[in-house]
Amino acid sequence: MIIGGTKALDRLDEPATAQDDPVLQVEDLKAHLHFGAGVVRAVDGISFTIRKGETLCIVGESGCGKSMTALAIMGLLPKPAGRIVGGRAVLQGVGDLARLTTKRMREIRGRAVSMVFQEPMTSLNPVFRVGWQIEEAIRVHEKLSRAEARKRAIAMLDLVGIPSPEERYKAYPHQLSGGMRQRVMIAIALACRPKLMLADEPTTALDVTIQAQILRLLNRLKSETGASLLLITHDLGVVARMATRVCVMYAGVIVEHGDVGDIFATPLHPYTQGLLASIPASRGGGERRRLNTIPGIVPSLANLPTGCRFADRCPHAYERCRKEEPPLAEPRDSSNGNEAQKVRCWLYLDPQRAGEGTLWRNA
Amino acid sequence: MAERVNATGHEPDGRPPIDSDSGGASAGPQPLLVARGLVRHFPLPGGLFRKSERSVKAVDGVDLMIGAGETLGLVGESGCGKSTLGRMLVRLDEPSAGEILFDGHNISTLREGELKEVRRRIQMVFQNPFSSLNPRKSIGDTISEPLIIHGIGDADSRHRRVLELLDIVGLRREHYQRYPHQFSGGQRQRIGIARAFALKPKLIVCDEPVSALDVSIQSQILNLIEDLQQAFGVSYLFISHDLRVVEHVSDRVAVMYLGRVVEEGSTADLYRSPRHPYTQALLAAVPIPDPAVAQPDSVLEGGVPNPIDPPRGCHFHPRCPLAVNRCRAEMPPLMAEGSHKVRCWVNAPAAYRSGIAPG
């Protein structure tokens, strides 16, 4: 689908980049929240890359730092507590987002990278018509006449599958359903054709049939616009449906990273394994079985244990786990050929223990 | 006190016989709660001197049965009326019409003063463990409150009972003196469950009890809910929008759409061979947590219609891929084949299609 006026984007000064340069490269990013004497290490040194046209899912439970990761990339950390205290987030053609001035960040946000939030009702302004809000997003970045911007806004509404877009252009947010509002948010996010879209739990507030519509829409738009997607979710079903690659986050760090097929077929980290086993499985009318649980709760990010952050809840923890934090690395015994799969767990990395993880996994 | 009515043999006037067979009483458990023709309309504000003629038809004629010791799952999307239905069964909301028989007693006509006894037997667990606990009350006080209200035991025996309840739900005894803000979401839901079990109820209405919880905590609470049922033989009405969770906990499942039950059956029947196109679409829409399994691509278009002015005929017909003329003109009744009931003209049980049964 062709959107009117996309030529404007070509004006974005873009140094020549190699085809397979990552769209976003995050290296050892640290975003902490400072409250008086306390520091909450919400994002505590994470690294990942997103390539063109790829969907990277960050999955984890509440408080694991997945939303803060997105806010750090967007330069939207809560002020004044939130700060990027280390690492880089390099956006293709732009540079390190962590080091941009507020002014430059405003130029980038919505244009080269944009974001869709969980709650479309609170992200849209209730007193402006939705069409005007899409137009505003365009006119901030591009010098277009009102008429051109309006044409583009209507084209965007059409693109995100809103029926009779000329009519809906004039609607106020409260006149739309939750699913329609989320479509409007996506239209705003894509209006300037960004290379990367971040979506933080975009379907969590929606019903399951509407969720299916939005997920399908995101996949279609991704292939039509060539944008990459960073999708943040707690729902492993959504991950399986959407992801190319997956980062599993726990207590501010990535504990496992790999292709979606590998993560689901051979989860390595005990936390990933526990998460997958906690999902109520379809039993097709068979006997009811007890669900697997992960005992205990997530540690406080203001008071993290030494050693592995998951050790207290881990059924396989041993001495070293409580003393020393494991790095995120490829398992020593990567005989299954999943070079790309990395895990933050001594069971796979400790030479004394190497292979043990594999043993109990197959047991 | 309520008039004693025969729960199984009762047949209200003017109702088609197909609706009177309230849920496989032949093989299933003894009915504990039977609801017939439950209606809840919320009138819309009218003009200055006029009463409004329009209303939101939140629940629009629901019959259901919950057997002793069983779990009935109630699923549907937001606004389908499932929570309103649950609140009516606990009498937190007044039915506009219809009746509720609990243990053979008609509880739908009881006045506020007479409800105490009912509340002792039917309890509720709410969705949000952050707003359903009083932040100024210690956990011990919160759990013992129902015991005090119902005048059960003295201070000593109540204290012992609360400690016992803390054990049962997997909290520690030293939690007695703590306050809700000192607990995580999962622990708060355990407190809510302990409070619901304090009076040894026969039925607990659980309204989205695990929706606010993370998946690893959700499984802890679901296991607890099942363990307590095994130990105390309590019945549950388990309301949720999460079809996976409902499949896991329920013996039978009812699916609601726009204020009505559109399909009801044993969990196995309903999940293995869903009859109603809406149930089929719901099940197809649940993302499968396995990238190796292809997700069905039958996505339901559109959204739920306005419950103030639902479509004529079958409420689902504007979104239904199978709709025929009859669906647009005439609301199908809930038609049963054994214990599996469906409100659909197209996928009606064979007996109804051949014109033997009333239409």
UniProtKB/TrEMBL annotation, chain A:
Record keywords: ATP-binding, Cell membrane, Membrane, Nucleotide-binding, Transport
This protein's record includes keyword Nucleotide-binding: yes
Compartments, as annotated in UniProt: Cell inner membrane
Membrane topology: Peripheral membrane protein
Superkingdom in the source lineage: Bacteria
Cited SUPFAM superfamilies: P-loop containing nucleoside triphosphate hydrolases (SSF52540)
Residue ranges of domain ABC transporter in the record: 24-276
GO molecular function per UniProt: ATP binding
Main localization category: membrane
UniProt-listed InterPro entries: AAA+_ATPase, ABC_Ni/Peptide_Import, ABC_transporter-like_ATP-bd, ABC_transporter-like_CS, Oligopep_ABC_C, P-loop_NTPase
Similarity-based family: Belongs to the ABC transporter superfamily.
Alphabetical list of PANTHER family matching this protein: DIPEPTIDE TRANSPORT ATP-BINDING PROTEIN DPPD (PTHR43297:SF2), OLIGOPEPTIDE TRANSPORT ATP-BINDING PROTEIN APPD (PTHR43297)
Official protein name in the record: ABC transporter ATP-binding protein
Organism of origin: Microvirga puerhi
Automatic annotation (TrEMBL), chain B:
Keyword Nucleotide-binding on entry: yes
InterPro entries: AAA+_ATPase, ABC_transp_ATP-bind, ABC_transporter-like_ATP-bd, ABC_transporter-like_CS, Oligopep_ABC_C, P-loop_NTPase
Entry's Gene Ontology molecular function annotations: ATP binding
The organism's place on the tree of life at top rank: Bacteria
NCBIfam families xrefs: oligo_HPY, PRK11308.1
Family note: Belongs to the ABC transporter superfamily.
The keyword RNA-binding is assigned to this record: no
Name under which the protein is recorded: Dipeptide ABC transporter ATP-binding protein
Compartment list: Cell inner membrane
Alphabetized UniProt keyword annotations: ATP-binding, Nucleotide-binding, Transport
